[in-house]
Automatic annotation (TrEMBL):
It comes from Marinobacter psychrophilus. It comes from the Bacteria. This is Phenylacetic acid degradation protein PaaY. Pfam families: Hexapep (PF00132).
Length: 196
């Protein structure tokens, strides 16, 4: 993975985390155990610290940065969807940020909450735990049910298993020119949209 030191500060990646080789880590970045960082993610710890706590994931093309002297934090089992931008915010434990959402400085997404896809969360936003947050600008639509929180937790577990799969089996290769008749199946779980 491209990893860069700045001002003598080097990123830290736990040996049981998976960071895709196309992701970029700069400066004061901490990636914890069982974390997944997807392809083309950018974690720029050149102004403020970036922390991914254990079991969290940051999917493809996400951008994480912070206002000077501030932190951007994804707490334990946090789940950040494809293309999201986190800027100097905190994603609390077991919360989820939907695809292409933007979470601004000093916003706090409370534990077990879900930010809907394409939401824009203004600076300084706060909410109660287990909130469903949608819109641009984003607002709390309602409280999540236990079933909805469980669905999110199931999806996060799939990414924790993906971390293990990547550490064990991912490798660069040349593509085949045709489908192999003995092609193996992917090892995927049972997480489903119908379980929401």
């Amino acid at each position: 993975m491209p990893c860069y030191q700045i001002d003598g500060v080097t990123p830290v990646v736990h040996p049981f985390a998976y960071v895709h080789p196309t992701a970029v880590l700069i400066g004061d970045v901490h990636v914890g155990a069982n974390c997944y960082v997807g392809p083309c993610a950018s974690l720029r710890g050149d102004f403020g610290r970036i922390v991914m706590e254990a079991g969290s994931n940051l999917q493809d093309s996400c951008v994480v940065h912070a206002f000077p002297g501030r932190d951007a934090i994804v707490r334990r089992n946090g789940h950040v969807g494809h293309g999201a931008i986190l800027h100097g915010c905190t994603i609390e434990e077991d919360a989820m940020v939907g695809m292409n959402s933007v979470i601004m400085d000093e916003a706090v997404i409370a534990a077990r909450s879900i930010v809907g896809a394409c939401a824009f969360v203004k600076a300084g936003f706060e909410c109660e735990p287990a909130s469903l947050i949608v819109g641009s600008p984003a607002k709390v639509l309602r409280q999540l049910s236990d079933k909805e929180v469980g669905w999110k937790q199931s999806g996060t577990r799939e990414y924790q298993v993906l971390t293990e799969r990547c550490l064990e089996t991912i490798k660069e290769c040349a593509p085949l020119t045709e489908i192999d008749e003995s092609r193996p199946q992917l090892r995927v779980g049972s997480h489903s949209l119908k379980d929401r």
